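Replying to the earlier thread about multi-chain prediction with a worked example.

Input:
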Amino acid sequence: MKEHTWHSASPEATRHLAARLGRLLKPGDVVALMGELGAGKTEFVRGLAAGLDVAPDTPVSSPSFVLAHEYPGRLPLVHLDLYRLDVIPPELLPDLEDYLFGERVAAVEWAERLGGLVPEHYLEVRLTVTGETTREITLVGHGRRGEELVAALAATPEG
Amino acid sequence: MLVLGVETSCDETAAAVVADGRRVLASVVATQFELHARYGGVVPELAARRHLENLLPVIQGALDQAGVTLRDLGGVAVTQGPGLIGALVIGMAAAKSLAWALKLPLAGVHHLEAHIAAILLTEEVPEFPLVALVVSGGHTNLYQVRNLTEMTLLGRTRDDAAGEAFDKVAKLMGLGYPGGVVLEGLARAGDPTAFPLPRPRIPEEPLTFSFSGLKTAVATLLKKDPAILRETHSRADLAASFQEAVVECLTSRCGEALRQTGCRRLLVCGGVAANGRLRQALAELSQTEGFQLFLPPLALCTDNAAMVAALGWHHLKAGRTLSLDADVFARG
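Result:
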């Protein structure tokens, strides 16, 4: 399946959906998050972390300031935030490649800034603000693995 | 005893020589601001490389300025974390090498605890215990400080740091860089009650901060009514309303922490402590609640190694040394 859309009524619902996705993730998976400020990207990553069994007392906060946070879980999760970077400096490339093409799970906020660095297989998550607390969440699968994840998540029961 | 302090946690390469945790003989800071400005913030790998180039000259500069040599030192103190891993390891490697070669004790200090310890370098040194708020672009942490080697984290932000919320909302409002400062300037002419914005709190964790929902509320408001940004007075009103919400979140948690701990002293430091409205609100609160307020001078609120040496001296005095195989840490 290439694409599927969910409607989230609250930040909690966004976290639950992301936690369901987190439980499906495998080493090397890349989740590319797109959406304006306040759309719920960090909230989504918080859910992913829960689904990857990151300890609940590990704070999942915005890495805008330091670019990357790493959380230990069932699989190690690296949380990137490219918010500040209009240009990706070449000095960042070795680290970025390691994150995006390594064995960890990578969740990338402001992934549109990756430009040509996007891997062949990845899952795009588009968050759109539809109301004060409501969001439209569209998952777009890129490559075989990306499409597999959309289909798998669409097939898991809600709640 | 003279302690050499080394600080490389972010984008300032710093070294200092401090006597007895109190008297600064030299404090040298090489800033990398220019290097990172075009990226809108610090790029970790660039910072690490620049630290490597700068650190030894900065250490030598501090020794020269103090008029001492390595043989006069009684200990070495270094920032162990939190910060950028690649940047921290440069300072740690230098500090460990010096300690090993000179057979000196090594102290590893927590960067935010060092910010609190910066108050030791001022005229008005508080007594303990106290509650301390470290509030900046990267952190919003509340501590109970029993003494300089016993600090307990009471609460922190679960999403954005307060300074980060300022910067992001400034960006939403199309203001310039650095966002926090521009937003504060605009807020001066505004009515802080004009827009009802939320004061996010987590009922079961009264000392935890959360600023993400506040940022989202501003985004939602601007989406509904983009005209707010076109009128000078409504722009100022929004800036003032947002600033007031952040200030209230910060002061209410400080008040709650003082009540919970029974402390009668509050110390507030970090870059956001430069905000005039926050300083005013804290001063008012200290009047009505009757506690002593300590706001270190702004020059001591930015990253430096004198605070690292000062806190390191207290660690060494308490026998708390760092083993040469200890590692740095990114968060905590």
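The longest strand of chain A covers residues 122-129.

Feel free to reuse this layout for your own posts.
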